[in-house]
Amino acid sequence: MLRVLIVDDEPIVRIALREIIRWDSYGCEIAGEASNGREALRMIGNNNIDLVLVDMQMPIMTGIEFIKELRDTPDGTKIGVIVLSAYRNYEYVRESFLYGVYDYIIKDDLEEEKVGTVIEKAVTMLLERMNESERKESEARSVLQQLKDQRFMEGVRKESGNVRNIRRSPHGEQELEIWNKGLPSYRHIVGSLLIDRSYKESFEDQGQKQRFVMHTVRQVIEGYGYEAVMNMAGPLEYALLILIPRHVSGLAARELLHEIITKAMSHLEQYVNVRGCIGVAEPCEDSGLWGARYEQAFVLAQYRFFNGGGRAYFPEDAAGPSQELRNQHGSNSGSVSAFIQALARDDDQWRKELNILLSHFSLHRKATIDQVLEPYRSLILEMNTLLYSKGIPWSNIKGVEFSASQLLSKIDSLQEVNRNMVEIAEKVAATVFAAKYELDSAERPVEKVRRWIQIHYHEPISLTLASEEAGISETYLSKLFSKEMGETFVEYVTRIRIEKAIGMMYSGMKLYEIGEKVGYPNQGHFTKVFKKVTGLAPAEYREQLHQEVEER
Known about the structure:
InterPro entries: CheY-like_superfamily, Homeodomain-like_sf, HTH_AraC, HTH_AraC-typ_CS, Sig_transdc_resp-reg_receiver, Tscrpt_reg_AraC-type_HTH. The protein has a 5-stranded parallel β-sheet with strand order 2-1-3-4-5, sandwiched between helices. A 5-stranded mixed β-sheet has the order 7-8-6-9-10, with helices on both faces. β4, α4 and β5 form a beta-alpha-beta unit. It has 24 helices and 10 strands. The radius of gyration is 31 Å and the shape is globular. α13 (336-344) runs antiparallel to α14 (349-361) and α18 (445-456) packs across α19. The chain has 4 domains: 2-134, Rossmann fold, CATH 3.40.50; 182-318, Alpha-Beta Plaits (2-Layer Sandwich), CATH 3.30.70.270; 323-438, no CATH class; 445-551, Orthogonal Bundle (Arc Repressor Mutant, subunit A). It has helices at residues 11-20, 37-46, 63-72, 90-97, 112-129, 132-157, 170-182, 208-223, 250-272, 290-301, 304-307, 323-330, 336-344, 349-361, 369-389, 404-408, 414-434, 445-456, 463-470, 474-485, 489-504, 511-517, 523-534, 538-551, and strands at residues 2-7, 28-34, 51-55, 80-85, 103-106, 186-195, 227-234, 237-245, 276-280, 312-313. It is α/β, with parallel strands linked by helices.
């Protein structure tokens, strides 16, 4: 892969060039970004850069000055250069061609097709100029890095991570073996980088942006002269290994790590526009401990939920609430029912009950974030149930438009969760007692679920999904459904599906196709349920229908 450096003092231009081009389709990867020519020269000195996109007009050092100094460096003539220019700066562009630039891009016209054509042309020229040994050396470095990444992930998760289609060779395996043998001479720092969940949607394209996160972190670490190995470990999750020589003292290594990670976090926010935190495990000197150390680092990274992100968490940061505090809250933990009852009475006591609940919820710091959030989701559903018992739909709560799962899915701070819960409770209390509603004016939850089943009968259906659709708890919905419909939720879903299946028997579809159409992909299960409802197997029932038609 050819390594690309983008140099421009405008962050929006750097982001545009990074995002609109599918760099990997041209055999390229973004190795870094710089905001001026001086910074770019330093980065080129620490990295193997093949192609530079540089703006003509920048502070500290202009594009022309940068190109002149670049060409004076030992390897500067081998690096391809594309200049970025506004229409009015074309004189600078013409001058830049005197120093061997490949082409130019007009910044006011950053269309994917036009920019892509320039990139493709530059890549072709670079590959033609690179001799065979240089290409092989570049490819070998890339393959070795991928092999190291894979080796690390095998140690972390006992699996190969997301590294695919590595072109293995005897030379590459030999280099990897040399690297493995040299590992005992280093102090191994294993970390877990978690990107804030609010960026999940922007990471749906699981490619270029994720790789740029890794390039950015690696670039910072390698800038300090240390080796970094890094790979995806899950959605918005990266496993990181930093190798520091053993002769560096423990205290010096700790101070150095803090500086490196702080800078890496800053670069992620500045250049990639994402925020996260890194959990850093206790150092080790044995690759056999990578898995255990990563588990420790991952747990530490979870502490961003309690104490904030954008920083590193070390083992000494893992101390949870004191036992005295646990005992204090444990003896006065309150209950959800006490809170809901106070809320229903329009009694200010609900604030006290809610504060006790939130304090109690906040103690569970050893669990995953999703487990920590579970009681909060349940609490929102209980408030939903209170609203429906008074004939008020959740949609009437102004400023709270999402379901419980959606509401909490993008929050990375316990403080923000607790603040949101108080705001929601205040809005629920105000809605219950400030507005005057008739019970029949709102759509009844059972009717809402009944219509939902009629539409989604062919999909996997459960009481849990139905309760989320209705916005009330499963227990309340189950009782309400049986009371209003005269049959249980499961009985109703089964009856609707079988009725739909009978209607399809006149269509000529095969029985297994009918079963799939009504939500029973397993033919045996479909036959069993059908016979239980009708008293006949599907084949027998269809035969009976055919006979009735013939008799007519």
